[in-house]
Design a protein that fits this description.
With 281 residues, this protein is an alpha+beta fold. The protein has helices spanning 8-15, 37-48, 137-145, 160-169, 220-237, 255-264; strands spanning 17-20, 54-59, 63-74, 97-103, 114-117, 150-152, 179-180, 199-202, 208-214, 242-247, 266-270. The strands form two sheets. Strands 1, 2, 3, 4, 5 and 6 form a six-stranded antiparallel β-sheet that branches. The model has no long low-confidence stretch (mean pLDDT 87).
Length: 281
């Protein structure tokens, strides 16, 4: 729940635990006097978990943190120990039902700032806690062990427009010799069907280059979208047009996406965002 509790994964990593909410002050009589179904499922899972069971820490955006082997659990009301401080709404805090784990780090990123992107089409389901039925733990271990699947926990442009603006200003960072398109319409080129590309550049051989920007790992539909733009621009200019798909997902791209990109003549690039701070003087 990174959106509701920013930095929760980092806390889990540091305190060697995963947590569940539903504080004692909420009680069971919430949501119109009914027990929330999610809490019932999570409570039953908490009761069933045993020492040496394995837990996968799921994060937003089809990502996971690490695999943890269960050491102990304290999930009853009297064990409540909030990992997130309380506020005016819930004075007893948040995320206080703890399952203590030993994170598997031998074949995984060392820093909590890096997490793992799962392949396209993989779903861990919804809800606070549930048993994974479609993949064995060794499958997760193999995915986590592959550095090409590692992505930054934050380290991404918040909006595709911000990434597009950056590439329009510094096109040479993407490829040596790239410059803004000659007619001045670099950002959001509008075609006859009212679709619009993200960034339009020229390479060192004076060929037009369309750059499409995506926050997450690219999909087949993303490649087809860019191919659609390439066709339009070729019709308008009569020139051979190149396409680059820039994304903020894992370096390793799904095979179906690679095949579609090769068929379409589209190049795929991963970007990484690095932010540093220095005290003003």
């Amino acid at each position: 729940m990174e959106k509701e509790n920013p930095g929760l994964w980092r806390r889990w990593f540091k305190h060697q635990c995963v947590t569940v909410g539903y504080s004692p002050e909420m009680g069971f009589q919430i949501m119109g006097g009914k027990r929330p179904r999610d809490w019932i499922v999570a409570r039953n899972a908490l009761r069933e978990i045993q020492t040496d069971d394995v837990i996968v820490a799921a994060l937003p955006g089809r990502r996971v943190g690490r695999i943890g082997k269960v050491l102990d659990k304290k999930f009853k009301d009297e064990d409540w120990d909030p990992l997130v401080p309380g506020d005016s709404k819930w004075k007893k805090g948040y995320m206080g039902r703890r399952i203590f784990v030993h994170w598997e780090l031998e074949r995984a990123p060392d820093s909590p700032d890096q997490v793992v992107q799962l392949p396209e089409g993989v779903s861990l389901g919804r809800g606070t806690m549930h048993r994974i039925k479609h993949h064995k733990v060794e499958w997760f271990r193999d995915v986590i062990a592959e550095p090409a699947n590692w992505v930054g926990m934050v380290g991404r442009f918040g909006y595709e427009r911000a990434l597009s603006d950056y590439i329009a200003l510094y096109p040479h960072r993407l490829e040596d010799g790239l410059v803004p398109y000659s007619d001045g319409k670099v950002r959001e080129r509008v075609f006859k069907d009212r679709t619009r590309s993200d960034v339009l550049l020229l390479d060192k051989d004076d060929k037009p280059v369309i750059v499409e920007c995506k926050q997450e790992s690219p999909t087949v539909e993303d490649v087809r979208q860019l191919r659609h733009y390439l066709r339009h621009l070729k019709q308008e200019t009569g020139k051979r047009v190149r396409g680059k798909l820039v994304h903020g997902g894992a370096k390793k791209v799904d095979r179906k996406v690679w095949r579609e990109a090769q068929k379409s003549g589209v190049e795929i690039f991963q970007y990484r965002l690095d932010v540093d701070f220095a005290e003003s003087c």
